[in-house]
Amino acid sequence: MTNDLERDLGLYATITISMGAMIGSGIFVLPALGLKKAGPAVILAYVLAGLVVLPAALSKAEMATAMPESGGTYLYIDRAMGPLAGTVAGIGAWFSLVFKSSFALVGLGAYLLLLVPLSGGLVKAVALGLATLIVVLNIVGTEQSGKAQSIIVTAVVVALAAYVLNSGVAIEPARFDGFAAKGAGGIVTAAAFVFVSYAGVTKIASVAEEVENPDRNLPLGMLGSMGIMMLIYTLVVGAVVGLNDPKVLSTSGPGGGPSLTPMADGAGQLIGGFGVVAIALVAILALTSMANAGVLASSRFPLAMSRDSLAPRRLARVSERFQTPRNAILLTGGLLIALIAFVPVVELAKLASAFQILVFSFENVALVAFRASGVESYQPSFRTPGYPYVQVVGLLGGLALLTQMGTLPILGAAGIIVGGVAWYLVYGRSRTDREGALGAIIDRRREEESVTSD
């Protein structure tokens, strides 16, 4: 076993891994749920959510070129704010991404039922089988996983483009009447709800150590995928709203709630039964892709934490045969399978969403800490424009959305924070004595005050 990973992900694979983490529940499940909160203005909610995510994407793109190593969110917050904050961010981001992956695999059950009448047990068995396949694919090699991701995402994007183009002849303008009738509050609430649709944009930073020419490919991959997905979300959600009776979207789901298959509902309106089958197949591909990207990215958190002595050392081992972090992938895959098998992941995914908003907000703080500290080791090849105003907007925007998540998700985020602090105190504190860039700022100011007082 070694601890080095190979750089074998090119720009296209980088973009498609990032897009694959976003093309999933945000398109195939959430539009109808967002419609119930904002009405037709759910389209604007997706745009608003993307704009709130953009500062964090810019910040992370800069930090990724300065530290093109595995770990992403954990690595940047740890180096900026110290190992305690890094431990909380690493554990929380790891849980959040695994929850999202398990939610994607369980969520595809609604689309499976459109194809074949399976029992609940069989749907779960299919999800478990796909989870096992994804874990094996990630162990066999990042390059193979990246190639599979590229093929799946390309096919899904082509299908979505066809969906949007064909919907132009069937959209009923009357369905956009009362566009913003639920007001700005409804749009903001819906934006907080669909925020997780964009959370995958920075996942590629978690595998930065495996990206070719990271100075070029990381910023282009993150920002390129972000721009493409904002356009796709706007067009697809607009098509869903225009194709469907709002009552169908709002009440045709389980227990009379919002539909869990809004894309298929729209396809049925567009081209009948064949359209439903086609979209169901595309949704299954997309949700599987989202889960694959989640395992690929989230498994790098325990790897990075292990390298920093904040997790057991065996998680840092890299397979000599496959050049992948096998133990970290097995740990992540084990949690994924356990969640699917035993836990109501739909509810837990909502709790994890609040923590993701919090992490995105503090990634902006991490960048400010690096810039203000002036540490010599921080030498990014890409610098985010509009510093520090972009970061301030990102922080405030994220915190504003967090207030719209409701009490239970906020308590869930607080629980993740408490768990991360406990792990650091019990395991990590005695094994590390690092301080982050923020600590360097504090030390420098203490020295300045000491000189002044003398």
UniProtKB/TrEMBL annotation:
GO terms for cellular component: plasma membrane. InterPro entries: AA/rel_permease1 (IPR002293), APC_superfamily (IPR050367). Keywords: Cell membrane, Membrane, Transmembrane, Transmembrane helix. The chain crosses the membrane at residues 12-33, 39-59, 80-99, 111-139, 151-171, 183-201, 222-243, 270-297, 327-346, 408-427. It comes from the Archaea. It is a multi-pass membrane protein. The keyword Membrane applies. It is found in: Cell membrane. It holds the Pfam family AA_permease_2. GO terms for molecular function: transmembrane transporter activity. Signal peptide: none annotated. This is Amino acid permease. It comes from Halobellus ruber.
